[in-house]
Amino acid sequence: MKITKQTFGEVGHEPVYAYTLENDRGMRLTCLNLGCTVTEILAPDRDGNLENVVLGFDRVEDYLRRKTYFGAIIGRIAGRIRGAEFALDGKTYTLPPNEGNNHLHGGIRGFHERIWEAKPVEEKDAVGVEFTYLSKDGEEGYPGNLQVRAVYWLTNENRWIQKITAKTDKKTIVNLTNHSYFNLSGNGKDLILDHELTLKSDRFLELDEELLPTGKKLEVEGTPFDFRKGRKIFDGTVSRHPQNLLAGNGYDHPFLLSENLNQEIVLRHRESGRKLTVETNQPCVVVYTSNALGEDFAIQGGVPSRKYLGICLETQGLPDAVHHSDFPPVVLEPDGRYEALTTYTFSTE
Q: Is 249 left (phi over 0), alpha (psi -120 to 50) or beta?
């Protein structure tokens, strides 16, 4: 197993480095100290061919110019906050609106555009990178100095382990996720419409016209949102279900997980034989099928960007929880510790 480091570009006068983790089986994961962004995961198909199974860019400028959030850590709060404000202990905090009247993915310069401190780490059967970042009191309108640590491990079992922890010196809100777009066909050569997704989820959150939760938890039974026995992504793109239409002919929905850390999210691509199993300690996964992905640029390798080129499996707390008292809270106290654990296991069948 080994770790290599090379210069990827710079932001302002700060260097952006690419760290490549490689295990003994040849699988590789490359990530940047810009937003902890995963730029490439080379995973084998059933014939052993290594191909990239995430979307990314070849240049640092594109990560800043295109608001795709490819592969990055999203924070302090993943998703949307209605009205770009929230209250804690009777005090209202105003955040920058960056999607209409709402606050999206941490604001104008969320965690995805910040340079993190990074250092290689090693264990007996894993190599990794430890990222740290201090989000100062008042950054993007959030209270408290928030110290964040994200560690990416690659193991010899072709498993990417992602552990994110945070502590604060003032009561604040935290809900972090990774925003990788997966495409198991390899090198973006096919859309994700024939990918089959299986979820251990009986309910999903209803969204309104601004893609914010209404507060209603809908049953998946009898709908295109029922992934309990496996379903192709294609079903949601042709569905006339109001929630599929609302999301731009596809999915952009939080699914409440009925189990944790027990193969609760499985993505398959039958043609290549690739299988991705996602396990997490978080209460939900936001499934986004890149319904709004721009078509006026190219990703790495010159592949044209287009709708349905990738699928995001964003493990996290429930979006806009600050405005729904019956959602699990995303408040972090000074004596508390935020901890999000998600593992991504790549295999073939």
A: left
Query: Looking at the annotation, which residues are catalytic?
Result: 179, 314
Closest listed residue to residue 134, CA positions, set 150, 156, 153: 150
Q: Are 329 and 208 in contact (CB under 8 A)?
A: no
179 in a known ligand binding site: yes
Backbone φ and ψ for 237, nearest 5 degrees, come out as -80, -20
338 labelled ligand-binding = no
pLDDT of residue 331: 98
- Residues 97, 106 contacting (CB under 8 angstroms): no
Rounded distance, CA 61 to CA 37, Å? 13
- Taking the C-alpha atoms of residue 117 and residue 303, their distance in angstroms, rounded to an integer, is 31
User: Is 93 part of any known ligand binding site?
Assistant: no
The domain made up of 2-348 has a fold known as Beta-galactosidase; Chain A, domain 5 (2.70.98)
CA distances from 149 to 111, 153, 163, 283, 320 (A): 12, 13, 8, 20, 23
- 251 pLDDT band (50/70/90 cuts)? very high
Residue 181 among known ligand-binding residues: yes
* Mean pLDDT of all residues in 203-214: 98
